[in-house]
Each structure stands twice: as C-alpha cells, then as structure tokens.
Specification:
Blueprint: E1 15-19, E2 26-27, E3 30-31, H1 35-39, H2 41-49, E4 53-57, H3 74-84, E5 89-91, H4 97-105, E6 110-114, H5 128-135, E7 140-143, E8 165-167, H6 169-182, E9 189-193, H7 202-209, E10 214-217, H8 219-228, H9 243-255, E11 259-261, E12 265-269, E13 277-280, E14 289-293, H10 295-306, E15 310-314, H11 327-341, E16 346-350, H12 352-360, E17 369-371, H13 375-381, H14 387-394
Parallel strand pairs: 1-4, 1-7, 4-6, 5-6, 7-8, 9-10, 9-15, 10-11, 15-16, 16-17
Antiparallel strand pairs: 2-3, 12-13, 12-14
Length: 396
C-alpha cells in the first residue's frame, strides 16, 4: 500500500490534491455532525508539517453536474478552518483557468478548498478529459476518502491514471481495520447486524458466515427471521418475500459452522412514540410492533461478546430514536465499549445508523475503530473490490 506516511515523500512546495469526504449532515445550513471532518485532520496536519500546498477536493449531496447553492462546501470549509485553527482559501465556482491561477498563488503549508466537485459534469461520469483536467491541478494525488472509494468517479478513480497517487492516513487505517475483521481474524469473532431489510445485507452475511463464529441478527431484519420460524410479529416492520434469503442464511450457517442468533424476547408498543413493554415471543399481539430487544436477548448478547476476541457491529437493535426503545442499542454499545477498553476485544463499528447511535451516546472513542463510511464499508464487507482502492493499488 502506497501510504504517504511510509513512502516518506518530500512534499515541500508540492501541490497535493487531497480527495476527502466532507459529505456531512446539515440542517438549515448548519453542520449537525462533524466526525467526517475530524477523521481527515491527521492527514492534513501531516501535509502541513511537510510544507505541502494542499488542494482539497470533496463533495456534498447529489447536484448531478449542476451548481446548487445549498450544496456549496463553503460552510464546511469554514468549519474545517476552525478545527485546524488555520485559514482555508475557498475557490468558488467550477474548475477553470481561474482555479489554476488561484492554486498557483498559495504558499507552502497553505490550504485551498475547491467548490463541490460534483458541480462539474465530468465528475460522476468519470469523464476521461475531466480526470486529466483535475490531475493537472497538482503534482501528486492522495485519496483519504474511503467512504467514496466504491464510486467510479473522476476524483476517485479516473484521476489516478494521470498523476502519482497515494493512500491517506485515514483510508489506510480504515482498510487495516477491515482487513483485521475479514482476513486477519482473531477468533472467536461475532457479528451484530441490524437494519430494516435482509435483502440489503444478505451479501454481507453470506460473505462473513464463512469466517465468523456468531451472527446476531437484530432490528427489522430479525422480525423477518422470527416471522419465518412461525412467530407472530404483529404490525412490526418486516421485509416481505424474504423466506428464500433466510433459508439461504440458515443453510450457509450450517455448512460453515456459524451460529445464527435471533432475539429471545422483545420490547413492543402499539405506536412508534409509545411506551415499551417487554414480552416473550409467544405474547406479541396483532396490533403491536417490535421496537427493541428484551433483557434475555441482551444477556445472551453479553455472553457472546464476553466469549469473543473480535466484534463487528452494523445496525442498531431497535428504534433507538425514541428513548423508550434505545435500551438494546445502548446496552450493546456499552458491552462492546467495556470489553474494548479493557483490551479484551478488537471492535469495529460502521454504517450510518450505527455511527449515529455511537455519537448519540458519546462512545466514538471507545471502539477500536469506527467507520464513517456507508456504502463503501458495506461493499467491502460483501467482499467487493472497491474501484478507488483498486485504482490506487494499480497506480505506480
């Protein structure tokens, strides 16, 4: 892996194109969560220390090759400037001759951020001419955006054909953590997986069944499994016509000696804003919804975590947005955090809702690694080769 740290590059005065993911959540023009900004600080600080001229490339939203004012990176540039305690020059508009002139003006150990790269028509189509055009902005290229690396876009994949290209610190850390989960495994290893639909996670489960000892299914996915084995799940969220997927999971788990664990008891309510009631599986009524796991299930998960050396968590245990149904997710979080802090397990968590839960309970520093990548994280776990990673490995 061509990591900027182990390559020991002389970057003084070099124009470094740094692709990062600053696609942060925003509400009424204000940034509501900053973990993606914080993740890129080590790479930026290293480049500043090496006296590089940093040109930041990123995106927010899906403007589809058009200028959309609400999707400007300017507020994010201002926030990053506060984190770094350093001025960031902002280049507004599309990439043109003025962009080159503005970049030429910056001094060593300075930063310029380009406007949303997706405002340019050639970005998402991975246009060859646009890839060449952006490669000419700098001397070397660094990808530190793992969460974009499943995209075949010009600033992720195409650019690497025309400029010396390297991995950033954050992307290298992400790949290292996921390799330890999927390749360099310290067994016993357990997966806790949730989400509303089994169909969106079937490839992950089938890929990891071959390597994992335990797969604990929670959330809406668990409802489908419970229904499949004859449990009345009332009005619970459930993906219909998923019986063949559940059968596939069970058959594969037997083949590879991986235990599939589903809830033993649940928290139910008649509405999403209601008060929860713990019930055994045979007590669920027709007008009730399963919105969390119960105490027996939590105890079972605790036993599995305590007997694991490695834990991967993707997906909350229930409707944690309502405090009445957050106990399962919170307990899983506390159990993994406690074991990680006592240096008993290697723990990795990822996925949008999982990161939201970790942030809600202020536990982001208590895991071995937390991935802020969404689709790229899931595709890596499926065993897919990500275009952005492949491109960096092929660039010489």
């Amino acid at each position: 892996m061509k990591n900027i740290l182990n390559e020991n590059l002389d970057l003084k005065g070099k124009k470094v194109l740094l692709r990062v993911d600053l696609n942060v959540p925003m509400k009424n023009g204000a940034i509501t969560e900053t973990s993606r900004i914080e993740k890129i600080l080590p790479t930026i600080n290293l480049l500043l220390k090496k006296q590089a001229k940093i040109i930041i490339i990123s995106h927010i939203g899906r403007p589809k090759g058009k200028i959309v004012e609400e999707m400007s990176l300017k507020p994010i540039s201002d926030k990053l400037s506060l984190f770094l305690k350093k001025e960031i020059f902002f280049n507004k508009g599309l990439i043109d001759k003025n962009t080159y002139l503005e970049i030429d003006k910056i001094s060593n150990a300075s930063i310029i951020m380009l406007e949303n790269i997706r405002f340019n028509k050639g970005e998402e189509s991975n246009d060859q001419e646009f890839s060449k055009k952006i490669s000419n902005l700098g001397d070397i290229y660094i990808n530190d955006a793992f969460s974009c690396s499943h995209r075949t876009h010009a600033s992720v994949e195409g650019i690497t054909k025309y400029i010396p290209s390297y991995f950033g610190l954050q992307i290298a850390e992400e790949i290292d953590a996921l390799k330890k989960i999927t390749s360099e495994i310290k067994k016993p290893i357990s997966l806790i997986i949730g989400g509303s639909k089994i169909s969106t996670k079937i490839n992950i489960i089938n890929n990891l069944i071959k390597k994992f000892n335990n797969i604990i299914i929670v959330g809406g996915m668990a409802n489908a499994v419970l229904k499949n084995v004859g449990i009345n799940i009332g009005r619970s969220i459930c993906e219909n016509q998923s019986d063949h997927l559940i059968k596939e999971i069970i058959e594969n788990s037997k083949k590879h000696n991986c235990e599939i664990i589903i809830p033993k008891d649940v928290i139910v309510s008649k509405s999403l804003d209601g008060v929860g009631k713990e019930k055994n599986l045979n007590e669920i009524e027709e007008d009730e919804m399963i919105l969390d796991i119960g105490s027996k299930t939590i105890n079972l998960i605790e036993e599995i975590i305590n007997n694991s050396n490695t834990v991967l968590w993707n997906g909350p245990a229930g409707y944690f947005e309502n405090p009445n149904f957050q106990n399962g997710t919170k307990k899983i979080l506390e159990l993994i955090s406690k074991k990680t802090k006592s240096d008993k397990i290697f723990s990795v968590a990822g996925g949008g809702e999982t990161v939201a839960a970790i942030n809600k309970f202020k536990k982001i520093d208590t895991f071995t690694f937390v991935s802020t990548a969404g689709g790229a994280f899931l595709e890596y776990l499926e065993g897919k080769e990500l275009p952005g990673i492949k491109a960096l490995n092929q660039n010489v």
